[in-house]
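Lab notes, practical 5.
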Amino acid sequence: MAACPFRRSIAAQGVWSQGHGDMDFSPWLAHSVFRLLSRVLNLPPENLIKSISALPVSKKRPVADFQLFVGSVIENKSSDRSKPDLQLQTQRLAEKLKCDTVVREISTGPGTVNFTINRELLAKTVLQQVFKDGSEYGIKSELFSTLPRGKIVIEFSSPNIAKKFHVGHLRSTIIGNFVANLKEALGHHVTRINYLGDWGMQFGLLGAGFQQFGNEDKLKSNPLEHLFEVYVQVNKAAAEDENIKKLAQDFFRKLEARDEQILSMWQHFRDFSIEEYVRIYKRLGVHFDEYSGESFYQEKSQEVLKMLDARGLLQKTIKGTRVVDLSEKRDLSLCSTVMRSDGTSLYITRDLAAAIDRMMKYNCESMIYVTDKSQNAHFEQLFQILKLMGYQWAERCQHVSFGLVQGMKTRKGEVVFLEDVLNEARSRMLQNMAAAKTTKELENPLETAEKIGLAALIIQDFKGLLSSDYQFSWDRVLQSRGDTGVFLQYTHARLHSLEQMCRDGQSTDINTACLQDPQAISVLQHLLSYDEVLYKSSEDLQPKHIVSYLLTLSHLAAVAHKTLPVKGSAPEQAQARLRLFQAARSVLANGMKLLGITPMKKPQHENHILI
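Output from the prediction step:
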């Protein structure tokens, strides 16, 4: 699979000389490769787009630029085709292909035909496109030409009100933000929803607890801290006293009945919570289009129950609860409880109401829910019930799940709240910067440490498969070298510093013959594959592809920066190298922003370079 950037729109036309205004990435260069293959294989160019990919850069030896997977384009007359047969066909195909002024070398690998592009044309073409497309580089690829753009609703973060922002919500927040960023970049209209946990029996417990243990003065001075103390206290009391549980049930029943006094207390808790969350989201660089919550759907959940009943889907159990039978044999071996015996709604009932309401309100193509993997069964049941209710759009609903973070601690001990983690990351980065003698040279060391610390947390979280649990380590997360967010930020800052120092001598008209060193070619080749990486992440919504790509780009740029100096080189050579580093920094910044990272820039003075 590939659509190197310069293959854009090649499927649209067979002859480039006809002239097409938006086909701006030296299309004749791409056409040369496809013309060779199209003529020999007797296939239209559009059939070849996903059969060709950019080769990964090798640290040990020079590699070709693109490879054709022969098995994907040769007619498969027998599913039992042997490897020797495939390799023989690969060799025969390569022999039929001839080099030209664009393709300078053709070779074979296991089941592949490899193409090496004229090096000067490669440099010219890649750099032209990076700077022309800017933030859309890679996104204008032919790979995305058939992508249907539409409205998408993404629900993420979703903390529980009346509690401080728990560290457990960090992953949902940054993963949801990444998915929203990616979808928006690809041209979708995204609505970001924060579906607050602001209803349910836990508020019965909290309300009853506040009536017993609450203090108005403490609530005013430090609301969420005090509510957390109350919640811990009442949970302990409920474990020892059954009467507390009854008081909690009574409080929640009154809340659902819209008792004025009880509702006022609940609203108070909710307002305090949102005010606190908005402040935390600002630190994370995350925003929402809508703050919703389970409370919005308390009444509508009753309508859902009526709809389920009307369709014959609602069944009463011996305990008096109402369930929907999801078993294949309809024997209640698998069912979902949608109403308590006292008539109050449940989480899934309100989720059903919310899904139906959102589809009517936004008329969206799909809905994406970002939560931890412990809710996999919940969302399977939610989507299944929606289908039973006749909502076929439930097929387009998706649950993006993630694993648990283990061992996240501050110096004070086990972490509970997200703000403790953010403060710890900032504090540790300040210490590291001070040790490196950079802090005193920065205009705002606190802000810099915040940006680097957040990048470190995000990269650590996004390096692996989202569904995997992982062990957290501060020492590993905050390393300035290696595959970390700190390294990405420092690389971007260094490249940005280089641009600023040389801005007076910058030129867009460069001699690409000056970019034939192996280190320069490696950077150019890597830039070619950015669209493939975006495509992979768009397919499975996994940020790890982009993270891996950016880390490799940073390492390649770091090596090139050491071996291909700008300062002290001949003017023509210096300008070409500077343009290469500008391109690398531009793509690095694009990828970081998709991940939710604000790229760090160097301070204004030359002697303030961070690394």
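Observations recorded by the TA: The longest strand covers residues 189-196. The two ends are 37 Å apart (CA to CA).
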